[in-house]
Structures are given as C-alpha cells and as structure tokens.
Description:
Strand order of the largest sheet: 4-3-6-7
Amino acid sequence: LGAAVNRILHRDGLPTRFASLVYLLLTADSGRVRVLNAGHMPPLVVRGEAIESMTRGSVVLGIMPDMTFPEQLVELSPGDTLIVYSDGVSEAMNEAGDFFGDDRLLDVVRHTRGMAPEAIGAGVLAAVKAFIGDAVPSDDVSLMVLRPVAARSG
C-alpha cells in the first residue's frame, strides 16, 4: 500500500508536496496490529507500567518514486494500549514558542494509564489545549487510542 500510494503521489503530485500516513490493519478477535508509518511520530505502546515507543517509520510519501515502506507488527494483550499521534501533538507550541514535547506527552500518558481509551485521548487533548493557551495552533492535532478487548466467551 505504501509503495503504491507513494508512486501515485510522486507521479501526480507537486514536486514540493508530500504526505504522511499511518495505516493500521487490525486483526479481528486478536491484539495483532499491522502498522505502516510513513512520516509520523512512532506510536506508543503502553503495557502495564511500561511505555515503549515503536520503531520510527519510513519517510513521507511522494518524495522519491521507488521507496519501500516496511510494515511493523505489534501484538497487544488485553489492557495494553496503542497511542498513534501526529507531530501536531508533540510540536504544539505555546505563546512563548515552547513545544509541548515528548516528555509532556509521556507524563500525560503515565497519568492516564489504565483509563478507558476515550479518557486517555481526552486527557492528551486537554493537556495540549491547556499548554498552547491562547496561541494560534500551528498544525493539526491527530490522535488515536486503541485497546484490544478481552475475547467474549460463548
């Protein structure tokens, strides 16, 4: 998918334009998630007390015609959480020109760990909004929080 979209963007796009992409393929009744990351921040995997950053993805789409875009695989157990976010989260800027940054993001994730995915997402978005205050947003803020559910019996 990454290679095909890349070829199209390179062929039909403007020379100075590119696109980032995160594509997730979830396997039903499983915690298996295949991740294609072209130019986005590495997703976070929360397992109990540990917060791991997935491997940084490949370059953005549309820059070079014959790029490959390797897929990553993550296996989530019930209770684990996958957090996918754009650089608009970590690079959100306040009026003083300071970035929200990875450390603040990790602090919010630590404090919301164990909460429902909706609450984790709301916590991150609220923290970013409070941080930027009255500053004009400089980028879009995209966020996805996933957690597998335990298999149902019967």
